[in-house]
Amino acid sequence: MNYYENKDVRNHVELEHTVKIDKRKNLEITGVKEVDSFDNEAFLLETVMGYLIIRGQNLQLKNLDVTEGIVTIKGKIYELSYVDDQQQEKAKGFFSKIFR
Asked: What is the pLDDT of residues 23-52, one digit of tens each?
C-alpha cells in the first residue's frame, strides 16, 4: 500500500506553504490550518510550518478558503514572524489576552 493512498487531497495540499506579499498591502498565505485569532493590528495563524504572527495596521481578512488552506489579508503589513515549537503555547496565551 502506498503511503499517499490513504491521504485525502487537503492533507496533500497542506504540505505546501507560501507567503506572497504585494507592496506591503496584500498578503496571500497558503498552507494555513487555522486562523486562531485576529483583529485590525495582528493575526495569529496556524500553518503547516508552525504558528505565524502578522502585525500591521488596518488589517482585514479578505479571503479565507479552509478547504485549500489559503488566507488573504489586506492592510499595511509591518511584520511577519514564525513562533518556534517551544513558544507556541506562550504565543497562544499572549494572543488570548490581546483578543478578549
From this structure: 999 999 999 999 999 999 999 999 999 999
- Of 26, 20, 35, 30, the C-alpha closest to 68 is 30
**Residue holding cell 503589513?**
77
Domain span at 46: 3-98
Q: How far apart are CA 61 and CA 46, in angstroms?
A: 15
**pTM for the predicted model, two decimal places:** 0.72
The CATH number given to whatever domain includes residue 67 is 2.60.40.2000
Tally of domains within the chain: 1
Task: Write 81-87 long-range contacts (CB < 8 A, 24+).
Answer: 81/52, 81/53, 82/49, 82/50, 82/51, 82/52, 82/53, 83/50, 83/51, 83/52, 83/53, 84/50, 85/50
